Amino acid sequence: MATNWQTTLTKRQAEGRQQRLWTAPIPMEKAAGWLVLLPVAFFFVYPLWKLVILSVKTEAGLGLGIFSELLADARTWSAVYHSLTAAVLSTVLALVIGVSLAWLCAYTDIRFKGAIHVMAMLPLLIPSYVMTLAWTQMAGPAGVLNRFASWLMGFPVELWNVYGLDGIIVVMGLSHYPLVYMLTLSVLYRIPKELEWAARSSGASSRNVLRQVTLPLALPGIASGGLLAFISGLDNFGIPAFLGIPAGIPVLSTLIYEQVIGFGPSAFGRASVLSILLGIIALGGTGLQWLLLRKSRVDQTSAEDRSVRYTLGKKRFLAEGAVGLFLLITSFLPLLSMASTAFIKAYGLPFLAENLTWKHFLFVLRDHAGTREALGNSLMLAGLTGALCLVVGTLFAYWRVQRPHKLGKMLEGAVSLPYALPGMVVGLAMILTWMEPIPGWQPGIYGTVWMILIAYVTRFFILQVKSSTVSILQVGREVEEAARISGGKLWTRWGRILLPLYAPGMLTGLFLVMLTAFTELTISSLLWSSGSQTIGVVIFGFEQAGSTTLSTALSTLIVTAILILLAIGGLWKRYWQRRVEG
Amino acid sequence: MNRIALRKWTLSLFAAVSVIGLTACGTSSSSPQAAAPSPEAAPQTNNQAAEPVPAKVGGTLSFYTSQPDADAAALIDGFAKKHPEVKVELFRSGTEEVISRLQAEAQAGQVKADVLLVADAPTFASLKKQDLLMPYTSPEAEQIPAELKDADGSYTGTKVMATVLAVNTQKVSTLPDSWKVLTEPEAAGKGVMPSPLYSGAAAYNLGVFTRQSEFGWNYFEGLKANQMTVSKGNGAVLKSVAGGEKEYGIVVDYMVARAKKEGSPVELIYPSEGVPVITEPIGILKGAQNPDAAKAFVDYVLSEEGQKLAADLGYTPIRKGVEAPEGLKSLEEIKVLSADIAELEASREADKKKFGEMMGGN
């Protein structure tokens, strides 16, 4: 049933696309392509290429021996199957939760939005080993859930055991939904409510409004968030390592780690072959996202509209209760479990008053010399990574959106790979590349803190690109046209019109990049050197020495500090938006 | 026109910013590498083993290790007191990460480490096979039992770390004294061990156990039948035993002793059959840029002073005549289960594979 509003929408959409395809003189177009292509090739593709070469290097010279050996191994395919299942299903879970929560927060009159927003960030902040540990305490064989069920029934029952593929999917989905939530939220605010009203007054049911207006218009955010959740699921090592290894479930990331540490002459080659498989899956995800985005609709730009669009009425209590319970279980309990471990004198003692102490916090803050240095390094690294990604990533996203051609797609795929591959592999590729990037040229970066910076930027770039893209996609070209027609110079156009409009997505990206960089673990544990210790390295060190109480104390401090900053940042963001759009 | 101007701006800005990182790094870096000889150019550093160590050492020493952070720091402090003129640069991470970085550096043609100290002898045997180590027989090594060091001096054990049985004292009332308890009904579904696929020390233990006549692969069949859980590493094993999720664990001794000392409800048991022992060997890398300081460092670690430091940190020392810390047995009191290092190194991958297939789809 093609109603009026639908035709208008599609027509406008078609015109928009037509406009987007305007072509400049060919040489300019080409030069632009090269200017983006070269840095991307050097910083993103070249390190991966170094890795790929290893896969065909056998003791007998170049050959596909490692490929044929690994591809004939049933375990490889079992890992591919598990990785794919875990990534896809956890993404579906993340999408359902993330979009629902974003919709509730953006459109309804649900209360405590600020608190919900902060609580929803927790899964991104809490280290994944803490998250999985909390889940094993809740839903492990001897966990609260199963003990309660057994007590209820009077005989041993196992309701649900978190060890296994289903556990990996659930914990991954719950860890990655904030990515979807954040990217969707900023999109939802921008959808003009008039469109929804128009649809409804033309007789569409509210479900149809959601399906045919809201969701298609929100697709840029949903698809980008889904992609990030998907590739996060592929690269994740902590969750399958804790929940999969005891259950005998290999995934690609754990199998790659296993190959790398198996040393031997072909260890890297084997890891490289598996990384190629993982890369192919990741690119498949990116391709799927493009297909989805083709269906997305860009409408005329409107300012952020944070007014309530749906009143839940009597259902409000129900919704608030459900969200509260959900956040309690998925965010607050893991945080509590982490904090309670940090206060216990010795790991394993019951949580009783006489067993509690502040000494672990004091030790990490006052007595452990490495902590302060690491804090400084991590802050510096997160700041620089955030700033570089913010500027370059937004420009990349701008270029990418203006020219939806093949080269753009290929380059976007290329910059997403370092985020999809396990940190261990990216770290090794960095060593192979930056020791001597070009034969005969040793920039002396390897072994310094700048090595970590380059690795972070390479790895987290896609987070900024996707976040910025979401906002750029939502701002129609006519805005820039209008500014130009009215005689706005380049700086005026960007500074006064585009940047404020792109700001929500850019800030989301900055936030994601800085946060992930600040708590990064794998790459720094491979690349740090004297003087460039990061927070992740310190926590990893405590954990490895068996000092769980210390590692959780430091994690608790970090999470608390970030939560406080988040609250301040939220206020600042509100102020910024009021200034820009008020 | 404006459009083109805009794009020019965007692009040049893009290009400019994307190289900022590179140039910033380029300018901030000095060029020590330029002066440093590449490994190919410096084969003469290999055969200095016989020469006496010069009294004067200096410069920077690059030290890669998997010891816990605090222990590595204490070791460096101790060394600095003796040789204040040497600046030690540390890279500390898991054994797996350290070796991976080393291998990647070797791939890229430049090993940056001078001295390496990681978990077990087969790891060093593998590096020796790849011709990455420089033989050095420290005068201090005389006091170390021959079976705990390499005959050519490519690596020398620095301490004794036994893998023991840990039990949760809140859940287990009668302490077992045999590894066999893990295959018996009382431990059914309650045991946990580190995975040889993810931990070098665990892979060593697997090799040793399967080569004992009283254990062999049958023992691991028994563990499997008794629902032994395989966890990522020693840290995870200790956590699940101390936390009460499991009751029996196969885990490295010093971790249990430390946790017990802090008050965790765990007890450490040396089973009567004996225990496999890893030695955290130390070795000097071929093409080390500061071989003299490297030798001085190895001497210090093996010296009486260095061994006392290890004991103070809670490890069983390897040198004869230095006492073990409280709660741990000394080398003389430990019944060591061992196997041929060369054989362990050669069959490690096969052992791991067999283990993976046996323990269920892993």
Account of the protein in words:
The complex is a heterodimer of chains A (582) and B (362). Chain A is mostly helical and 582 residues long. Chain A has two domains: 52-297, MetI-like fold (Orthogonal Bundle), CATH 1.10.3720.10; 370-543, MetI-like (MetI-like fold), CATH 1.10.3720. Chain A has helices spanning 4-20, 26-56, 65-71, 74-107, 113-125, 128-139, 144-153, 165-190, 193-201, 206-235, 238-243, 252-261, 267-294, 315-343, 359-367, 369-402, 406-420, 423-434, 449-474, 477-485, 490-518, 522-527, 535-544, 548-581; strands at residues 57-58, 61-62. Chain A has a two-stranded antiparallel ribbon with strand order 1-2. In chain A, strand 1 (57-58) and strand 2 (61-62) form a beta hairpin. In chain A, helix 5 crosses helix 14 (315-343), helix 10 runs antiparallel to helix 13 and helix 19 crosses helix 21 (490-518). In chain A, 52% of the residues are buried. In chain B, the strands form two sheets. In chain B, strands 5, 6, 7, 8, 9, 10, 12 and 13 form an eight-stranded mixed sheet that branches. In chain B, 40% of the residues lie in helices and 16% in strands. In chain B, helix 5 crosses helix 12 and helix 6 (200-210) packs across helix 12 (341-358). Chain B has 362 residues and is of the alpha/beta class. The model of chain B is unreliable at 1-11 and 13-53 (pLDDT under 50). Chain B has two domains: 50-158 and 279-328, Periplasmic binding protein-like II (D-Maltodextrin-Binding Protein, domain 2), CATH 3.40.190; 160-278 and 341-358, Periplasmic binding protein-like II (D-Maltodextrin-Binding Protein, domain 2, 3-Layer(aba) Sandwich). The radius of gyration of chain B is 24 Å and the shape is globular. The interface between A and B is large, with 87 and 93 residues.
